[in-house]
């Protein structure tokens, strides 16, 4: 299913995904800033949170189930809708590598807005990021009124 | 940039290790436990006191906080700082709580932009609440506000600053100077555009340095929690429990809330036989995107955005001549709804209005409202530099919740008096102190979180000591919850979870939205009662126990349903219009006096004939039957000499 171009990009993405603290490189452009001066990010620098770690020895099917929950339960509605629709389309057919990329993409950034506004640090580049960006553009003009109900999983298993 | 990265790498070496897995030695039976606890780890005891099928892991703490949003984190942090062994149980990672969506800021009368006084903030909030707010709690919140903001600053929250280095403050709807006579006040403090995230990050990060144990991705149901990671059941024993679970926007079809706002705390309290207060007061934010419901921040109107109808008219000039588009949210929502009902709506069905921004310079849009352009494009297909955004009043906030006093203690009302429920506290959107009364002002919610999160921690520290002996726990405590879990996990009725949820959401949307009227509400009540019964016929499909999203969403539906029936019954009973509760058949406020006329010569209406009182609603979970009682509003401030209470008046902007 993977073309050679996509496979190459996937490999590059995985190699570039060697750990680098991504916090300070994130693009910040969201919400309402008004007159407020720029963000000094003092809290992110002075109070670092424990770094995100990949769960070792997690079976693939369990990872898929966890990522489903974590796609549907986000900090704000925009991400709830986008990520649950994305998960409905792609999650069940992702390979182990793609699942790992997706896991990092949705769980490492501490600010959900950063996922919504497509952070650009290299550590997130890769096939899954491209899939998400493309999905968000909505070239087919699908209606995006709400997160899907869960029962699509039930039908699949029938 | 490189030096900053190096610095953060150095700092991260000193950070506490994140998780631990429970050693295999404490496992009983053939189940493999591998749950994680962030922060401080303690030994947990496993037993099958409840059922052999669902072995229970028992934990003991001085205090348990349910929910890790702004209020929960502030309470957990305050308790840990005071030396209490604290657990914080949350179904989401702390920085992913719905607080992260907050874009506005925190109101505090610091007086950095112009002369300011917390008593003016007090007046604005009392007026904003349409005189349903308890003035002692409002006094407490607005007086504490400057200290609370400075405290957050000292914790490391990087508030935006003016050129003089003082905290920058901006305008927000409903905030005025000199008791409404001095024009727009600028008292909203922010961290650029990520105040909510910064609050969560700062509090979570700080609390990890104390002894807080975080149980992340555990779904709480009373004293029992289900660990998503391995399906184990956990029981938390503590003298003090703080409920900080947020609101319940998801009872409606269209709301600005994340899918996590399911009223879990309100439901827990209801199942314990305690009342919820003022649930009929649901705030509709004027500008949610038509369709998806995503929020378009009030800041747009602060920057000069205007609402227009099908005739291209800036209609807010008629409804609020002074404040216009920056009037209080309930006033704007009502105005928009009137325009639509009178036929001046836009779109093919004429069922919404437009928010126009393209008259503003593109440069201003790009620098001050960058995120809006994205959201408008992704969810409405609109280019804000050329076209207006389709918007509609959308459910945004729940003023009601678990009733508390100004110290954060949960109260109930018996024998005509407020009585404290020992050992139970609530803060944040889940609570109803009540500071927002019938309508909340923008940027008062984040303030509510930190002030009352802190108040809960302070009250517990005043009345208890760390390491106090726990009351004995019945070995089978939590049995009902586990039985319910098991029943849902294997439910095989006829209606899927999503079907029942949609029925509930559509009914609430059609019958208990911005404008309410007796016959429509009554019909809604009957429909909701019937939908409640269908829960017995529910069908789930996922029989697993690890990361069972279907089960969690079904548990959330049970919680939502309890909130929905109370909301609609309380709305049907309340025969007046006040704040966010607007009725077409009872258009005016019904107070003890008619405040639109001089008081002299008027006879005070008896308590049971006016509506300036709080609703208290109870549900019998087995039958879904709602009972309503009432409780008087607290009209005196904490110190009448220092800050006189504000007597009721007609509310106009």
Which terms summarize this structure?
heterodimer; A: mainly alpha; 0% strand; globular; disordered N terminus; B: 653 residues; FAD/NAD(P)-binding domain; Flavocytochrome C3, Chain A, domain 1; Methane Monooxygenase Hydroxylase, Chain G, domain 1; 8-stranded mixed sheet; 29 strands
Any overview of this molecule?
The complex is a heterodimer of chains A (158) and B (653). Chain A is globular and about 50 Å long. Helix content of chain A is 50%, strand content 0%. The longest helix of chain A has 14 residues, at 77-90. Chain A has 8 helices and no strands. Chain A starts with a helix and ends with a helix. By secondary structure, chain B is of the alpha/beta class. Among the domains of chain B are: 45-99 and 197-282 and 400-463, 3-Layer(bba) Sandwich (FAD/NAD(P)-binding domain); 285-394, Succinate dehydrogenase/fumarate reductase flavoprotein, catalytic domain (Flavocytochrome C3, Chain A, domain 1); 479-589, Methane Monooxygenase Hydroxylase, Chain G, domain 1 (Up-down Bundle), CATH 1.20.58.100. Helices cover 31% and strands 20% of the residues of chain B. In chain B, the strands form 8 sheets. Chain B has an 8-stranded mixed beta sheet with strand order 1-2-10-6-5-14-22-21, with helices on one face. In chain B, strands 3-4-13-12-11 form a 5-stranded mixed beta sheet. Chain B has a 4-stranded antiparallel beta sheet with strand order 16-19-18-17. In chain B, β21 and β22 (417-426) form a beta hairpin. At the A-B interface, α2, α3, α4, α6 and α8 of A face α1, α5, α7, α11 and α14 of B. Chain A: It is found in: Mitochondrion matrix. Chain A: This is Succinate dehydrogenase assembly factor 2, mitochondrial. Chain A: Belongs to the SDHAF2 family. Chain A: Interacts with SDHA within the SDH catalytic dimer. Chain A: Its main location: mitochondrion.
């Amino acid at each position: 299913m993977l073309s050679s171009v996509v496979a190459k990009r996937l490999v590059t993405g995985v190699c570039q995904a060697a750990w680098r603290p991504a916090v300070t490189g994130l693009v910040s452009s969201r919400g309402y800033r008004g007159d407020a001066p720029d963000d000094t990010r003092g809290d992110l620098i002075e109070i670092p949170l424990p770094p995100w770690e990949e769960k070792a020895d997690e079976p693939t099917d369990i990872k898929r189930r966890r990522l489903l929950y974590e796609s549907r339960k986000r900090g704000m509605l925009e991400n709830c809708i986008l990520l649950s629709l994305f998960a409905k389309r792609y999650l069940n057919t992702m390979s182990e590598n793609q699942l790992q990329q997706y896991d990092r993409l949705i769980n490492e950034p501490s600010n959900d807005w950063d996922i919504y506004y497509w952070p650009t640090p290299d550590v997130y580049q890769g096939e899954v990021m491209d899939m998400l960006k493309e999905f968000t553009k909505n070239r087919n003009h699908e209606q995006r009124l709400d997160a899907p109900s869960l029962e699509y999983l039930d039908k699949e298993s029938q | 940039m490189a030096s900053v990265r190096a610095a953060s790498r150095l700092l991260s070496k000193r950070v506490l290790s994140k998780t631990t897995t429970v050693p295999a030695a404490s496992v009983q039976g053939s189940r493999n436990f591998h749950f994680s606890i962030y922060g401080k780890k303690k030994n947990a005891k496993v037993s099958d006191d409840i059922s052999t099928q669902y072995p229970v892991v028992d934990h003991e703490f001085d205090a348990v906080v349910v929910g890790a949003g702004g209020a929960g984190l502030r309470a957990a942090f305050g308790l840990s700082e005071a030396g209490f062994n604290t657990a914080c149980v949350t179904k989401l990672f702390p920085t992913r709580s719905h607080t992260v969506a907050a874009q506005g800021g925190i109101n505090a009368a610091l007086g950095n932009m112009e002369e300011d006084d917390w008593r003016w903030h007090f007046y604005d909030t009392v007026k904003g609440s349409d005189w349903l707010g308890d003035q002692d709690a409002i006094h407490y919140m607005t007086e504490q506000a400057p200290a609370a903001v400075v405290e957050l600053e000292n914790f490391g929250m990087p508030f935006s600053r003016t050129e003089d280095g003082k905290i920058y403050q901006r305008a927000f709807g409903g905030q005025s100077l000199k008791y409404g006579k001095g024009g727009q006040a600028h008292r909203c403090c922010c961290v650029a555009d990520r105040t909510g995230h910064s609050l969560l990050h700062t509090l979570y990060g700080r609390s990890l340095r104390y002894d807080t144990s975080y149980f992340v991705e555990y779904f709480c149901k009373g004293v029992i929690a289900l660990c998503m990671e391995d399906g184990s059941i956990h029981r938390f024993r503590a003298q003090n429990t703080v409920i900080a679970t947020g609101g319940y926007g998801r009872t409606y079809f269209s709301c600005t809330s994340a899918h996590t706002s399911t009223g879990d705390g309100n439901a827990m309290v209801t199942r314990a036989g305690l009342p919820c207060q003022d649930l009929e007061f649901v705030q509709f934010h004027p500008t949610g995107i038509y369709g998806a419901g995503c929020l378009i921040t009030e800041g747009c109107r602060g920057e000069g955005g205007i609402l227009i109808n099908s005739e291209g008219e800036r209609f807010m000039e008629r409804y609020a001549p002074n404040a216009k588009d920056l009037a209080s949210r309930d006033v704007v929502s009502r105005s928009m709804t009137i325009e639509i009902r009178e036929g001046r709506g836009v779109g093919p069905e004429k069922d919404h209005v437009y928010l126009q921004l393209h008259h503003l310079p593109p440069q201003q849009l790009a620098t001050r409202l960058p995120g809006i352009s994205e959201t408008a494009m992704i969810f409405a297909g609109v280019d804000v530099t050329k076209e207006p955004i389709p918007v509609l009043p959308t459910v945004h906030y729940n003023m009601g919740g678990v009733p508390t006093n100004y110290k954060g203690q949960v109260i109930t009302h018996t024998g005509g008096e407020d009585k404290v429920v020992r050992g139970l506290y609530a803060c944040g959107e889940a609570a109803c102190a009540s500071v927002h009364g019938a309508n909340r002002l923008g940027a008062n919610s984040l303030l509510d979180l930190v002030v009352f999160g802190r108040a809960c921690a302070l009250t517990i520290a005043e009345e208890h000591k760390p390491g106090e002996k726990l009351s004995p726990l019945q070995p089978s405590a939590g049995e009902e919850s586990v039985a319910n879990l098991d029943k849902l996990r294997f439910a095989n009725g006829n209606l899927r979870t999503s079907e029942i949820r949609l029925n509930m959401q559509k009914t609430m949307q059609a019958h208990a939205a911005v404008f309410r009227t007796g016959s429509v509400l009554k019909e809604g009540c009957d429909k909701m009662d019937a939908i409640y019964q269908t829960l017995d016929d529910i069908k789930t499909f996922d029989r697993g126990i690890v990361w069972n999203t279907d089960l969690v969403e079904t548990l959330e539906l049970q919680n939502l349903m309890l909130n929905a029936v109370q909301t609609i019954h309380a709305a049907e009973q309340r025969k007046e219009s006040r704040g966010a509760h607007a009725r077409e058949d009872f258009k005016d406020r019904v107070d003890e006096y008619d405040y639109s006329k001089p008081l002299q010569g008027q006879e005070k209406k008896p308590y049971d004939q006016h509506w300036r009182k709080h609703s208290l609603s109870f549900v019998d979970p087995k039958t879904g039957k709602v009972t309503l009682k009432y409780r008087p509003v607290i009209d005196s401030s904490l110190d009448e000499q220092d800050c006189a209470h504000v007597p009721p008046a007609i509310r106009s902007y």
